[in-house]
Amino acid sequence: DSGVTQTPKHLITATGQRVTLRCSPRSGDLSVYWYQQSLDQGLQFLIQYYNGEERAKGNILERFSAQQFPDLHSELNLSSLELGDSALYFCASTRDKTATDTQYFGPGTRLTVL
Amino acid sequence: DAKTTQPNSMESNEEEPVHLPCNHSTISGTDYIHWYRQLPSQGPEYVIHGLTSNVNNRMASLAIAEDRKSSTLILHRATLRDAAVYYCILSLIQSAGGTSYGKLTFGQGTILTVHP
């Protein structure tokens, strides 16, 4: 158990819909990273937040957005969903904001878009 | 971003050492070398990281070439629980407005199969 929690574990929805994925970092960790893992693309970095502020952006679509709240939990919002958005979404947390810190990953949310 | 190259798959027998290679010929002086692994149906898990010197921890050892263009993750005695996808990653430290941050770029990794 990494100490990072993600909800829900599974999510099934239809094209065009909007969903919210939630991540709670390990106690004391200030930084949250979001990743998408699909069969054809592998594990892709989406976005990083540190203490409520966006710090780094990867291959995140404009239809996707994220935020980190004062209690440090983070939400990833996916809208206008397409079939290709079906994937595993992981969040990870670190104590600090640099990638030299160990990233602790959550168990993931499996999103299926029908 | 500097890229890494790993074999698609490797096999080992239980109780034997495993050497997982990684090439990173375009590594820059400030890139750290990280190894993570992903067990089936789980999120990635940190294994080890280093900059220039060889590193050891309770899970594995990391041997880094003198020119830093390659590295090897060593599992000293493979167990069935070590069967996973192993990712070799370079962490890129970037600066924005004077504050450094980093990101990990995962490749396809090496699928390690361990035979009983």
List the helices and strands and how they pair.
The complex is a heterodimer of chains A (114) and B (116).
Chain A: E1 5-7, E2 10-13, E3 19-24, E4 31-38, E5 42-50, E6 53-57, E7 64-68, E8 74-78, E9 87-94, E10 104-105, E11 109-113
Parallel strand pairs in A: 2-11
Antiparallel strand pairs in A: 1-3, 3-8, 4-5, 4-9, 5-6, 7-8, 9-10, 9-11
Chain B: E1 9-13, E2 18-23, E3 32-38, E4 45-50, E5 55-56, E6 61-64, E7 70-75, E8 84-96, E9 99-104, E10 110-115
Parallel strand pairs in B: 1-10
Antiparallel strand pairs in B: 2-7, 3-4, 3-8, 5-6, 6-7, 8-9, 8-10
Written account of the structure:
Chain A contains no helices and 11 strands. Chain A has strands at residues 5-7, 10-13, 19-24, 31-38, 42-50, 53-57, 64-68, 74-78, 87-94, 104-105, 109-113. In chain A, strands 2, 4, 5, 6, 9, 10 and 11 form a 7-stranded mixed β-sheet that branches. A 4-stranded antiparallel β-sheet of chain A has the order 1-3-8-7, with no helix packed on it. In chain A, a hairpin with a 5-residue loop joins strand 7 and strand 8. Chain A is globular and about 35 Å long. Chain A starts with a strand and ends with a strand. Chain B has 116 residues and is an all-beta fold. In chain B, 0% of the residues lie in helices and 53% in strands. Chain B is built from no helices and 10 strands. In chain B, strands 1, 3, 4, 8, 9 and 10 form a 6-stranded mixed β-sheet that branches. In chain B, strands 2-7-6-5 form a 4-stranded antiparallel β-sheet, with no helix packed on it. Chain B is globular, with a radius of gyration of 14 Å.
